[in-house]
């Protein structure tokens, strides 16, 4: 038995059960926000201006939380709606609206035949799963370190059936790149044939700092759009999922005046209001951009050693047999093992380590090169993280 | 100048600004739940079983909150999904799903031509606004003290284009009636032509007690459906909006096994999970049915004098010139002023008292008798409530 096989058998008998599939913050990160749970209590004045956050009202969100996201996104607060815990849910809602009743007076997608959607790859699996479920035809757009291939996008949007594009412009999931200024500008200058084409600008990591605790700004797409009168092109999303408690935070969408009016006309029939007590909790805890930066430095401090560890082990073990991204921030590392991604993920599973399914970062789960593996170092404790990473390296060597 | 006109002028100069349009709990009711805001704090164990409520997971809701609604609804917890703050949002989501991708394998509503919807009247304005927005053809179903006219419903559901019905079976909004056992049984025995016909059983007041603090049970429609194998007919909704904080509570939907599977297959593409910390807060505070009953007695104690006051003034002032409901629970009184509802609401507005728009309780805001006015006594403090009620009585007399 070869040495590699012996190691493989050795891992198998350990019956490991390590899940590295999702980009979840680790418990130490969650602990950073525990003080927020005391901030709205039985002694609190639960008012924001004249709004009693304990009662019905304020569909657009409370003023202080709108201001918070205005500060984060550098967009006027009147262009921001604050909703519930999930920005993904807002994207889904805007897509549902597009299908059912259309965008800004255009025909509903359900009456426009085949809908096509641009998907920079590798990208976020949950984005692609959503547009696949809705039956849109998804088109791969290759990405490099500057962002998606803009030449290709400018070509594709000449087709009036192309109605939108998914973007994670900062610390892109899963490659970790930040869209360059030029890419952002070309998005703002886009002239799609379809009037109801929208850029889904999922800026979920906007407040994230680099692992070294530094700000890595990205060009403000709304400012750029203003220069070209194209503000209606963009829906920008943000949330506190990676700041406080994922799934129990608040989310927001920034919209041009036209888009806001259009969306509110849908939303007003959907519910009375979102959870304003949780909005108040977040507004009081995160306060402003300065406070957020201090808070995010603590996150960076926890994340850095985890990414360092994985990258160090990859360096030690995978030099010359694989390539991988070296992100400065975000939640993922992309590992590339040409023609062997599926096999590596399967081997890891056999050794008790669950990774995101191979192909997940591509529409229809079809990685044309069967190469990309999404590595999520954030959730695991250091010992498990080291074990999981060694298992991944062994799997790569085994299938080579 | 007549005495009535003098009174009218007298109110006008007072420049009142009293809003009695919505069924909102009053501040004293909200205060009852303030201790809940301390229950999940920085020292808490935020786990429910093995679920860290601070992180992503548990799309169906946390076990303890599912059990809570299981207890409230008397339905197994595996048939319950706990979502975010708004049950209206769940209804909207199920309707969106019906339109976009259909129900349990049937064709999407968007591909089935004209969709018709049954609307017991008078009913809840927000229900009707939702189905109107979606372009469904709404059909009035008269109600009496036992519930909707079941003969008519049994007739209408023979039409395969009729896809659903709105019901508020307990303390019906706005008449306050409770559906009789026979009505519930006839719903359970319904044989609609459309396989994708669903009863939207909005049991939002299920935990409400009578103003005297007594339980007024309603027959469990799921139990009845089981007898006829018709569990797939019903979506049942509940929420804590009238127990804790409206708009910041938790909501739930009870679904048959088939409907649950069908809905989850939609929901899983929509978001990762709902706010589990708020679910935990509610599960720890409301605990079980017994605890809820004690809590709801306190609500009843606050509500009773408000309803008594309005009914007493109506008795004094409107005998022989109007009729009105005398609900045992719920949030509304229905006042009937044949052919004059619009005029009464306008006159009230002139005197500075805003009521729900006349006609609101009917599809398309068209009350065939221009008779029904929805009175919402809950939110106002006693002095304002008395003033508003006197204004309403004066308005009725003025237009007669």
Structure description:
2 copies of one chain form a homodimer. In chain A, the strands form 4 sheets. The first copy, chain A, has an 8-stranded mixed beta sheet, sandwiched between helices. Chain A is α/β, with parallel strands linked by helices and 400 residues long. The first copy, chain A, contains 14 helices and 15 strands. The mean pLDDT of chain A is 97. In chain A, α1 (3-13) packs across α14 (382-399). Chain A has 2 domains: 3-31 and 292-399, Aspartate Aminotransferase, domain 1, CATH 3.90.1150.10; 38-288, Type I PLP-dependent aspartate aminotransferase-like (Major domain) (Aspartate Aminotransferase, domain 2, 3-Layer(aba) Sandwich). At the A-B interface, α5, α6 and α11 of A face α5, α6 and α11 of B.
Task: Give keywords.
homodimer; alpha/beta; Aspartate Aminotransferase, domain 1; Aspartate Aminotransferase, domain 2; 2 domains; 3-stranded antiparallel beta sheet; 15 strands; globular
Sheet with most strands: strand arrangement of chain A:
4-11-10-9-8-5-6-7
Class based on secondary structure composition and strand pairing of chain A: alpha/beta
Rg measurement of chain A, Å = 22 Å
Beta fraction of chain A: 5-15%
What is the mean predicted local confidence, pLDDT of chain A? 97
Regarding CATH, which class of the largest domain in chain A?
A: Alpha Beta
CATH homologous superfamily grouping of the largest domain in chain A: Type I PLP-dependent aspartate aminotransferase-like (Major domain)
Q: Per CATH, what is the topology of the largest domain in chain A?
A: Aspartate Aminotransferase, domain 2
Number of domains of chain A: 2
Q: Name the poorly predicted regions of chain A.
A: none
SSE sequence of chain A, one letter per element = HEHHEEHEHEHEEHEHEHEEHHHEEHEEH
């Amino acid at each position: 038995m070869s040495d590699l096989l012996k190691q493989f058998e050795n891992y198998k008998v350990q019956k490991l059960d390590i899940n590295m599939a999702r980009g979840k913050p680790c418990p130490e990160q969650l602990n950073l926000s525990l003080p927020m749970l005391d901030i709205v209590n039985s002694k609190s004045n639960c008012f924001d201006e004249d709004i009693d956050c304990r009662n019905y009202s304020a569909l657009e969100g409370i003023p202080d939380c709108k201001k918070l996201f205005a500060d984060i996104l550098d967009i006027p607060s009147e262009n921001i709606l604050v909703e519930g815990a999930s920005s993904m849910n807002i994207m889904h809602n805007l897509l549902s609206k597009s299908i059912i009743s259309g965008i800004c007076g255009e025909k509903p997608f359900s009456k426009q035949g085949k809908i096509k959607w641009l998907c920079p790859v590798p990208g976020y699996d949950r984005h692609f799963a959503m547009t696949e479920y809705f039956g849109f035809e998804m088109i791969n757009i290759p990405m490099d370190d500057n962002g998606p291939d803009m030449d290709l996008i400018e070509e594709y949007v000449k087709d009036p059936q192309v109605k939108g594009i998914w973007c994670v412009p900062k610390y892109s999931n899963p490659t970790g790149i930040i869209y360059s200024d030029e890419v952002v500008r070309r998005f703002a200058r886009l002239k799609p044939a379809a009037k109801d084409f929208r850029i889904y600008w999922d800026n979920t990591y906007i407040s994230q700092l680099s692992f070294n605790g530094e700000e890595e700004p990205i060009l403000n797409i709304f400012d750029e759009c203003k220069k070209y009168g194209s503000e209606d092109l963009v829906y920008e999303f943000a949330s506190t999922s990676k700041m406080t408690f994922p799934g129990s935070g608040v989310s927001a969408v920034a919209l041009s005046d036209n888009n806001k009016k259009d969306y509110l006309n849908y939303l007003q029939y959907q519910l009375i209001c979102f959870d304003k007590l949780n909005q108040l909790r977040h507004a009081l805890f995160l306060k402003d951009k300065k406070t957020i930066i201090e808070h995010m430095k603590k996150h960076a401090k926890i994340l850095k050693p985890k990414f360092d560890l994985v990258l160090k082990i990859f360096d030690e073990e995978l030099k010359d047999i694989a390539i991988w991204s070296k992100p400065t921030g975000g939640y993922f590392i992309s590992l590339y093992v040409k023609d062997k991604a599926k096999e590596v993920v399967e081997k890891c599973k056999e050794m008790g380590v669950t990774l995101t399914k191979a192909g997940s970062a591509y529409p229809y789960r079809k990685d044309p090169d069967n190469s990309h593996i999404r590595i999520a170092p954030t959730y695991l404790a250091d010992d498990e993280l080291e074990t999981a990473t060694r298992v991944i390296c062994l799997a790569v060597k085994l299938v080579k």
